[in-house]
Amino acid sequence: MIAIVDDEAALCEATESLLKSVGYRVQTFASAEQFLLSPLRRQVRSLVLDVRLSGMNGLELQQYLIAEGDSPPIIFITAQYDPQGQLYRQAMRSGALTVLNKPFTDHDLLRILAQVMERRQSSRPMTVTRPLLDRADMA
Description:
Elements: E1 2-5, H1 9-21, E2 26-29, H2 32-37, E3 46-50, H3 58-68, E4 74-78, H4 86-93, E5 98-101, H5 106-121, H6 135-138
Parallel strand pairs: 1-2, 1-3, 3-4, 4-5
């Protein structure tokens, strides 16, 4: 299952619809706290996570999951302007797969998720030595 954590309802609905249309099981959450309280949390194989959330933000949720030893592969999404790349570097240093700027393309998200699911099905460890989507691809 893929979890989407974003407080923008329209984005959650559109992304959920896209992912379901290509066969993924998807669950949306309006906050990090809602995600953490969900009994479905242990079924998540990849997390599409907004950086800016009310309450616990996406980077804090990432750190919480890492500390717990239960962090699925994370694809961060953000509308936050990051001219110096600090947000990108922080997320990547902590093990995120990539950071997609909103609005992102369906193609980019589906490509990254396909790579994540392929790696999980092949039983190879999900370790990332470089981002699946380079910053140059985000321009």
